[in-house]
Amino acid sequence: MSSAPAPNPAASDLVRAARGLPVSRTPVWFMRQAGRSLPEYRELRAGTKMLEACQDPDLITEITLQPVRRHGVDAAIFFSDIVLPLVVAGVDIEIKPGIGPVIANPVRSVADVDALPELDPDALGFIRTSVGRLVAELGGTPLIGFAGAPFTLATYLIEGGPSKEHARTKAFMHAEPQAWTRLLERLAVSSSVFLRTQVDAGASAVQLFDSWAGVLSAADYAERVLPHSRAVFDGLGDRDVPRIHFGVGTGELLPLIGQAGADVVGVDWRVPLDEAARRVGPGYSLQGNLDPAVLLADRATVDREVRRVVEQGRAARGHIFNLGHGVLPDTDPDVLTHVVELVHELSAR
Length: 349
Ligand code: 1CP
Description:
Number of domains: 1
Structural class: alpha/beta
Shape: globular
Radius of gyration: 19 Å
Helix content: 40-55%
Number of strands: 9
CATH architecture: Alpha-Beta Barrel
Strand content: 5-15%
Distance between the termini: 31 Å
CATH class: Alpha Beta
Bound molecules: coproporphyrinogen I
């Protein structure tokens, strides 16, 4: 009796596209695919605080699987948050509904940096449990593990919460260069531990979110931020999983952003993928870059824009279709399912 080989996420289109290998069709997933656009998510989350949900293996597993079941996306992204490793270490953070992470005691001095608690890897048992369950459930569909890049995490710690200009962060970076370096080094260690934990438990790819890096000049990014993002990826050692590196508004940083050790550069909607491929240079795949706002438009517009992104993505050595940033909460989930089908149809080899 012959049996089919077990489905292997390491041979999935997502992992292959990330490495620039031929695929059966363009893989697609959505940043923030788990979350408020899904009624089943809102129902499950009702009455549970975000950071409690992020530490409950039953909720983590179910919320991570919901968009995979509903949309047929080519990857799951682990349900958690970039601030979770800090929370587990003991930093006083709350995720406020409709706002985001809010820090009780913002970091404003060298002493504040030194007072930050360290993350004990042994405290991440619930991550290992959740990833193990997910990998068993997902079969051939890869699970993407993720972490926040040191700069983006630093913006929350220094500002005390979400901000637009990140002015305090940039002022601290320039005025307190030693404290800045120490802070980013410490954040790199904690993000690295968080990523390693997910990979060692079975995640098939990782994404480092440097969401707000686009507020920096290329010179400041190269000198004061990039080395710390590189340290996070370096912390993965020789673990053989593709590495995705993403930020918003990074048009000017695209030639640099892969240099942190990425296989895939995530691109927001501002730079077309053929131009992005030119800017990042050879040796990288691209992920992106449909404007999430387009999903709120009529179907003909959605289809036209999806076609454009798929077409322009052919300029890269490999393309993972995604949005240029996260799914907006008002998005009709049926439109997301439609986009998955359309990308697959347009790219079937
Ligand atoms: O499907 C998924 O992507 C879910 C997993 C996930 C991820 C990858 C969540 C759940 N958060 C994140 C990463 C994350 N968290 C990033 C990087 C991605 C991005 O740029 O969007 C950032 C910047 C955060 C910080 C954060 N957490 C924000 C943004 C605040 C700001 O500065 O504008 C918010 C709103 C949160 C809360 C959060 N995280 C995740 C969810 C589903 C929510 C909303 C929870 C709620 O409303 O109760």
